Amino acid sequence: MPPPLQIWSHSLVSFPSHLLRRLALLSEPRAVITAGQELYLDRGSTLRLTCQVLDAPNPSEFLLWYHEQKVANYEVEKVEVSVGADDNGTTTSTLTLEDAQVHNSGLYTCSPSNAKPASIRVHVLSGEWAARANYWHVTCFCGLHGRDG
Fold first, then answer.
1. Average pLDDT value for the chain
2. Alpha-carbon distance values, 72 to 4, 5, 11, 33, 129 (Å)
3. pTM exceeds 0.85, yes or no
4. Assuming Cys at both sites, which of 3, 111, 147, 149 could form a disulfide with 117, CB separation 3.0 to 4.6 Å?
């Protein structure tokens, strides 16, 4: 009979690799921005992004939001950031920017101290472009579900 280590490695090899990768992703601490990977909003709207730190053994010691290369918590005007943890130790942070302007477009990243960061691309649009983007988004979304746009 082979030693236990050989049995374990043989069992591990026979386990489907795509399931192993999925299990590893599920247990690795990571940040998730609830709005997804891309967000469109009209100029003058309030930008509100929420980030949750999942599968972390402890609450984050700190969490920074970035807009492109700037630390949004400190270097971006008019941005408010709140950070807190629930009873389960899940850290949640919200970035709020009232009266968003086109120059506020770009990549926003939620970077906790104890997990992989998450990013979202924000598009602040004005006038005709905003109407076109919303039409395109609604048409594509409905088309995916078999409804007419």
1. 80
2. 51, 49, 47, 15, 26
3. no
4. 111
